[in-house]
Design a protein that fits this description.
This protein is α+β, with helices and mostly antiparallel strands. The chain is built from twelve helices and 20 strands. α6 packs antiparallel against α8 and α10 runs antiparallel to α11.
Amino acid sequence: MDRRTVLALVLVAAVIILTPRLFPPAKPPALLPADSLVLTDSSARPAVDTSRPAAVAAPASVTTPDTTLVRIPAETLHVADTNAAFSVLNTGAALQQVELKQFRALSGREGSVRLEGRGTPLIKFRGIVGRDTIRFDRATFRVLATENVLRRETRGAHTLISLEGAVGADTLRVNYAIQPDSFLVGVDGQVRGPLATNGFILLDFAPTLASFEADSVDDQRHLGFAYEVAKRGSKGTAFAKLDPGESVIMPGPLSWVALKSKYFILGVLARDSVSPMAELRMTGLARTSRTATLAQGTVVIQPSQGNFALDVYAGPQQSTRLQALGRDFENSNPYGGFLQPVVQPFAGIVLSVLLWLRHTFDIGYGWVLVIFGVVVRLIMWPLNQKAMRTSMKMQRIQPELQALQTRYKADPQKLQSEMMRVYKDHDMSPFSMFSGCLPLLLPMPVFFALFFVFQSTIEFRGVPFLWLQDISLKDPFYILPLLMGISMFVLSWLGQRNTPPNPQTKMMLYLMPAMMTFFLLNLAGGLNLYYAVQNLAALPQQWLIANERAKAAAKPKK
């Protein structure tokens, strides 16, 4: 081997050994733990670790001086905990959707319920200065990041997503503080530029909520807005009440505004009087069917020194969760419609009792309704007993009263004194007939409360019982409505045994059960179950009273 060959080999070896040392390659970015916040393509489904709770991050007011702003085109950020998975777009810093993991879709689709607006974000932001609209919803926001990878700050019990975007001279920064296992997101915003001093932030709701219910038409009928004007109480406006193109403006200040379906709700709540919600505008959109499924809701927010702070609840209309949020947010799911002032108190009591029975005895809601129906009848037993016996006394003295009316027809004062004597002799009063009707009316508030409770109480959603797949839906075989009607007929028949013949009461014997069966035929199976149990539980008492009437009729008159 000549010298030139040896020299060439030495030079090649030197290049191979010294080049990596003199020109080291760039270090790869640090990897985050599996449960950290991740960036994915906006068209991809969330890829999250559901085995751990959401990451913990710094409060919205904490700055991160060592981070850099990196422009990221059209990305979706996903954060998940055991209850929900949140998706945030960097286009417009919009809350895209929320997957509710613990609530399965009942519409035949696979997977869980998702709060989504059918391709439109749940909430998005715009600005307005004078007559100019700042379209933040179309801007691509930058995400605070280090080495193009999002970083977690573990200083608070939430996960922080911080985005910043600019349109012209105006800049908007939005921090989403996602609190684990609560369906709650704190939204803190900061604006700079002319918008901070002379403008307003517009928060747009999605124009609808996708349905995941077995009865999607009924679900869509419940689409609407709910809102509470500070110190003036809560109100609601259904989509059906907004004609296409019609706008309704609700001046504030508003404590909260919500977009809701039958069982789920997207609520925006003012926080500690910071940046009050000054106005709500509701506009009806074009209808594609007889059911109104589209409407636009926009909240006008007035920044305070360039800042605004809100809480967003995106989850089920569970009374305990809504109450825990305060600000009277439980009134976002009212019972009773225009009868709310009367029905709401009873509905609240009835629902609390049902929830207590469910958790105390650890049984299904079907059996809870059975127990509740029996307990209500047992509580009413003494009053019913007294009322039935009063009715028996009234029947016994009717001949005497009729005789007095014939005898003293021309002397009203004498007739009144003689009638009072008869009442006193039988330990009764002229008002006894009304006291006999009172026990029949007392169960009605409970019945009406349950009627409205079954309309939108998520605890009953998808609950099976015996042959029923869902006690919140009608009985597919109509067994319970027919059982309710038959039991009501038998109850009325026993009530008329051993009583003087009366054509009117005989007609009601057939008419009332038929009317109630028709009324309840397509209503919730759980409501029919409760009413049928009520009737069956009342049969023994009615049978005993019928026997008492028979014995009283058999006694010889003195």
